[in-house]
Write a structure and sequence with these properties.
Layout: E1 2-6, H1 10-22, E2 26-30, H2 33-42, E3 47-51, H3 59-68, E4 75-79, H4 84-93, E5 97-100, H5 105-119, E6 125-128, E7 131-134, E8 139-142, E9 145-147, H6 151-163, H7 170-177, H8 189-204, E10 212-215, E11 219-222
Parallel strand pairs: 1-2, 1-3, 3-4, 4-5
Antiparallel strand pairs: 6-7, 7-8, 8-9, 10-11
Length: 230
């Protein structure tokens, strides 16, 4: 994912860039509104992270100018303002989503991925080893046998499949499968563990080897069987 970060706080921009780079993204930076517009015009980005308060040209003006020029790159606005008026003004200017600063990095990454997927929809189906996800039908099968999942289990498996064979942190799974829990409300550990147990039982229990794997202290992944993890 190629991301433009328009943020005048250099330390914050660097911290965001470092985290996103670790997730596999590439980042360019602009520290003023006008230079952000120039970069957005000159290059193709998958998503733009746009601060609301910027020198020379504010975030609303930047977004309005890009939209008026036909630039439809998804824009995620960073703002310290959480009033309905500011949020409405942002959407009227053409933003696609927003997060309130300070924002947990996993939540920021999850929001960016959601915007990316909106413009880059997955294929109709995706197979990992003997497991196949049918996205349009919200259906899962392994070795031809239908697998029943809860809606939350589907979301967890979907993210693991889309990121496979990468490791997905628990925080990322929570943000993806429980998108409304908010930065100040943690997902109940018991609920998470129950959903994970049900997912493992559905996907792995009746088959010769597991696909849902845990890296202790790191996260979960969906990986096909190899000679090293048989």
């Amino acid at each position: 994912m190629n991301i433009l970060i328009i943020e005048d706080e250099a330390d914050l921009a660097a911290a965001i860039g470092d985290y996103l780079t670790l997730q596999g993204a590439t980042c360019d930076f602009a520290y003023q509104g006008e230079s952000g517009v120039v970069l957005a015009q000159a290059q193709r980005f998958d998503v733009i992270i746009l601060d609301l308060v910027l020198p020379k040209k504010g975030g609303f003006e930047v977004c309005e100018q890009l939209r008026s020029e036909g630039n439809n790159t998804p824009v995620l606005m960073l703002t310290a303002c959480d009033t309905n008026t500011e949020q409405l003004k942002g959407f009227q200017a053409g933003i696609d989503d927003y997060v309130i600063k300070p924002c947990p990095m996993p939540l920021l990454w999850a929001r960016l991925q959601a915007l990316y997927r909106r413009d880059h929809p997955p294929a109709a189906q995706l197979s990992i080893d003997t497991l196949t996800l049918y996205f349009k039908e919200l259906r899962v099968a392994r070795e031809g046998y239908e697998i029943k999942l809860t809606p939350t289990g589907w979301k967890m498996l979907e993210l693991l499949a889309l990121r496979s064979p990468e490791v997905v942190s628990r925080a990322e799974l929570e943000d993806y499968a429980w998108p409304d829990h908010g930065p100040d409300h943690e997902v109940d550990a018991g609920n998470f563990n129950v959903q994970l147990h049900q997912l493992r039982k559905a996907v792995d229990k009746s088959f010769a080897y597991p696909l849902v794997r845990t890296l202790v202290g790191v996260g979960l992944c969906l990986r096909k069987k190899t000679a090293f993890n048989a």
